[in-house]
Amino acid sequence: MLTIHKPMRGITILLLINTLFNIGLSQNLQTVNILFINDRTNEVAEETLNVALNYIRRNPRVGLMIDGLYSVKIGGDDASAILETLCVNYNASIRNNKPPHLVIDTTINGVASEAVKSFTAALALPTVSASYGQSGDIRQWRNLDGEQQKYLIQISPPADLIPEIVRSIVVAQNITNAGIMFDDTFVMDHKYKSLLQNIPTRHIIAAIDDTTSIKLHLTRFRDVDIVNFFVLGKLSIIKSVLDHANSNKLFGRKYAWHVITQDKGSLKCGCSNATILFVKPEPDAGSREKLSNLRTTYGLTSTPELKAAFYFDFYYRSLLAIRSMMNSGEWPTNVTYTTCDEYNEENPLPRRNVDLRRYLKDMTEPPSYAPFLIDTNGHSYEEFTMRLEKVTVLNSQSVSAENVGSWKASLNSPIVVKDAANMTHFSAVTVYRVVTVLQNPFMIQVDDEDGKGVKFKGYCIDLIEEIRKLIGFEYEIYIAPDNNFGNMDENGQWNGMVKELVEKRADIALGSLSVMAERENVVDFTVPYYDLVGITILMKKPQTPTSLFKFLTVLENDVWMCILGAYFFTSFLMWIFDRWSPYSYQNNRNKYKDDEEKREFNLKECLWFCMTSLTPQGGGEAPKNLSGRLVAATWWLFGFIIIASYTANLAAFLTVSRLDTPVESLDDLSKQYKIQYAPLNGSSAMTYFQRMADIETRFYEIWKDMSLNDSLSEVERAKLAVWDYPVSDKYTKMWQAMKEAKLPNTLEEAIERVQSSKSSSEGFAYLGDATDIRYQVMIDCHLQMVGDEFSRKPYAIAVQQGSPLKDQFNNAILLLLNKRKLEKLKETWWNLNPERIQCEKQDNQSDGISIHNIGGVFIVIFVGIGLACFTLAFEYWWYKYKKSSKVANTMNPKQMAMNKGGEFTYPVVPTFNTTSGMRSRSIIQGFRRSVGQSSPKQK
């Protein structure tokens, strides 16, 4: 007899009760048959199925018993072979009288997945699938009717939802470029187009195959200026990517790193100094106890944990839904199954009243990781949570891991951030590569203040700074390798800034870049930021020769000498006539003693008379004798003609010297041969003239073919018969002249050739952009811009074709226009430019004569005044010293004595004969007047 001790009696009773309870449950177990179809590479799904079946087997309270389990592993791209394998197992289940109540499909994607979907849809088998794909991605289930959607159900696995966080981060951070790398734990075939669809973010999605591919992708991303990196994969793959990035110096404020994984654990990398946004899954707080129990009790140890937990819940919930349908009586009792051999495509098998989707949606079983959301195919998934951590790595050690936010798995779920300021560290500072061309005043390169580098200034720098303030970005400027704006050769190949944009080495082309039709075919232009600018002519400014004594150059030197000779000859002749004529004043004084006009024409008076006769003041009192008056009249007539001729010639001479403008337009330049002219080699101006010449040549060929066409009638040929060729060949001749003049290769060379010209009518003229020429004229007073602008085009900023920067820059430029900021920039760099030189105003026809040409007249005045001062000094000296001594020498001592009253005794004046009596008296009277004494009679 068995004796049971009291302490053991309670345990035995409990075991007996449990056994009886299980026996009771086993009598109510629902028997379910399963057709399990798995991808050969999906080991986690297979391992987790065993855990789920073990869980069901060890927990009879679940009320399930798996009787028939048919497991099929498929793979490859041979759809026929896959379908044959499926049919073999399916037909076997029917033969064994264990047809599947449920098909569990854990194929990933591709041909294998589509083959399974085709198989289950055709045979109307209730199916739950964990294949990858959003709405419409699974082609075979794309057009399911209402009844089929009830039992053909797809639930997206976690790895199909996790990439959506990339979209959420891009939207939250306003990221404009992204480089996305993923390993084999993620499937991105269906994400290439949909992941960042309708988001203005330039991105590349690339698969990681090995170490070589990591290096290749990082290089590729950097070459196209992608600075925001996303890595989706296992922690080991992430570490390898970060190590390569560290060796390539891809960490810092210009770069942003986001690593996303399904794995548990911490982030590790050999980074010297990096801040990384680390995204990893985190189980719900209410599910952690169950998850721990599954891991320790039932061996749910497959990794990644998120994936294993999903498959466990996926299996378990699907089987519970079948059980619930059977217990409620909604599972059909007479389910018909058609073998593959009996299947007729023309008569598809109907399946009614199997609403498996509703039972899955109403499931209340607590999850082991996160709850499920059951909706339509492509919108059913597990709502797990991803934790966002800010990880700082210094010298290969993670020094901190700060929780900054979370993200709930969804197709369009935003990031929940604890502190928005923390997220600013996880977006790269947007740094655009700007290619430019040096050109004053738009882009000027100067040495940095510390002398360690160079920086840029100019109109375009101020413009990009104003745009940067509105949009928010940073930029790096570099000069185009060939310093060209961009032209296309005969083979369609580009150079200059346009080439840098086409080959994705630059994001922005900034400079005085003209909008041209061929450029718009390969790049996108913003709205113009500068007025229409055309081509014009730069020439040396005509230098009008100036001279202080230019009034003397009106007459030739020989004429001046003849005038001077005539002056002296006439003065001498007048003196001779006045001396020897008996009717002159000095020889006939008694006759004119009562005449008020008494002038003796000695040689000095004759010189003065002839000189003053040439002036408006007049010569004064004329000679009394007729012969002298004839000489004076002749001199007056001579003076009148000379002065009139001089005045007329002076005005004409000064006017003609200011009208020396041989070229005033392009037509004038094309009609002359003394001045050579050419644009820069490879410039848009060169392209313009070359193409205009080609067009003229083509027109000529067309006209010639029309004129020489033998098929024309006489009337039609007569209509084409003209004396002159109807199309001008101006540009053809100009292009030929330009090639003969040799096109300069640089602007500096062109300016030097213009400056070295002999004059404005002989030398070299440069044809180029009006802004270039206007600036050169502004800083060099010896140059001038000639003619009107032609072939006018606006300046705009160029970006890569399809770049979202176009719209952003358009809005910014239009806003600057409304605020009149662009006008202020133009005022700053043109009118207020510190390089601007204030040139002396050039004489023109409307201005008066400049001091440079008439200043000699003032010199004549000063010279005359100087001579007058010298003469005055001489006269004073002559009178004071010379005259006194002569008078004293003509008197004896007795005559020089003074009487007692102090009266002066005049010397005895010698008398002359009667013929010279009048002369003697005149001399005596003159002498008395000179010494200031009255005559003896008067006394």
From TrEMBL:
Membrane topology, from the record: Multi-pass membrane protein
UniProt-listed Pfam families: Lig_chan, Lig_chan-Glu_bd
Binding-site positions, L-glutamate: 514, 519, 684, 769
Domain (Ionotropic glutamate receptor C-terminal): residue spans on this chain: 431-832
Keyword hit for Disulfide bond: yes
Membership in a protein family: Belongs to the glutamate-gated ion channel (TC 1.A.10.1) family.
Name recorded for this polypeptide: Ionotropic receptor 25a
Transmembrane segments: 558-577, 633-656, 854-879
Coiled-coil segments on the chain, per record: none
SUPFAM superfamilies hit by this protein: Periplasmic binding protein-like II, Voltage-gated potassium channels
